[in-house]
C-alpha cells in the first residue's frame, strides 16, 4: 500500500517512512523541498490543502499520516480538501492531551489521575498549553504555538465521516533526536564524570517513553490495520514506565559507567532550572495495551537495543 507522510523530514516522520518500507508499504514523502532518497519524494505544502488532495489521487495513496497537524484550523482545511478521498487519515497526536499533562504544567487543579492512563483518561480542561500571556509576533517562527492544541485537532478529526485513526505519542527518543533526550545522563557518563548531580524530583519522575523506531512501526501498524479504524490509540514502548533513576541505571550498565549519582537540592542545577515551572510529582504514564490487543503489535527493538542507539547519536 502507498502511504503519504506529511512531515517526513522530521525526526519521527522520517522514521515512519522507513517503517513503511520495512513493513512492505510504499511511502510517499511530501515536503516543501524534494530530496534524493529511497522513498518517493514529492514537493508539497500542507498549507496548500488542495495540492495535498491532488497528490493523494496522483499517487493513489491509501493512507495519509499527518505528522504536522498542530492546529485545528489548518487541519480542518486539509480534511475539507480531501473529503472526497476514500483512504484513511492518521493523526499524530500526543500524550499532552491528558489532564495529567495540565497538572504537570500547573495549568489544572486537583490530584493526578493514578496509574497508567488509557485512551479514556480525562483530558485537559485548559486549552492552548503553549500560548504565552502576550501573543507572539507574526514574524516569530513559533507563532503557530499560540494556536497549538491536539485536543482541538482530535475533535476536528473525530468529526470526519470517512476513515480516521488517532495515535497519541509518548516522549520519543532515539538516534537523531534533535532534543537529545537522556543526554543529561549519558553525555556525562561518556565524558568520564565521576559523579552526576541530579534533582531528586527529576530522578523520581515517571513518564512513558518510546524509541523512535518502535513509535514509527506502531504508527504504520495503526495506519494499516482494519481494527484501528475510527479509533484512538496510545503508543507506548514499555507497559511499566519507570522513573528517570532507573533509566540512569540502565545507561550506566550500557556505558560501563561506575560513578556516583548524587541527589541534588541545588536550585541552580541545570535540570532544576529547566523544570522549575513543572510539578514533577505528577506522572505522565500511558498504557499502550489497546493498540497491542487490537493489532498484535510487537516492538521491533528490545529495550537494550533501543537504548544503545542513543550512544551513537
Descriptive notes:
- It is built from twelve helices and eleven strands.
- It starts with a strand and ends in a 5-residue tail after the last helix.
- With 313 residues, the protein is α/β, with parallel strands linked by helices.
- 38% of the residues are buried.
Which helices and strands occur, and which strands form pairs?
Elements: E1 2-6, H1 11-22, E2 26-31, E3 40-43, H2 49-58, E4 63-66, H3 72-81, E5 88-94, H4 99-104, H5 150-158, E6 164-169, E7 171-173, H6 183-190, E8 195-199, H7 200-204, E9 209-211, H8 212-224, E10 231-234, H9 244-255, E11 260-264, H10 270-274, H11 289-295, H12 303-308
Parallel strand pairs: 1-2, 1-4, 2-3, 4-5, 5-6, 6-10, 7-9, 8-11
Descriptive labels:
33% helix, seven-stranded parallel sheet, 313 residues, single chain, globular, two-stranded parallel sheet, alpha/beta
Return residue spans where pLDDT drops below 50 for at least 5 consecutive residues. Answer: none
The helix tally amounts to 12
Approximately what portion of the residues adopt beta-strand conformation? 15-25%
- Helical content band: 25-40%
Coarse structural class: alpha/beta
Oligomerization status of the protein chains = single chain
SSE pattern, N- to C-terminal:
EHEEHEHEHHEEHEHEHEHEHHH
- Work out the radius of gyration: 20 Å
Largest sheet entry: 7 strands, parallel
Q: Can you describe this structure in just a few lines?
A:
By secondary structure, the chain is an alpha/beta fold.
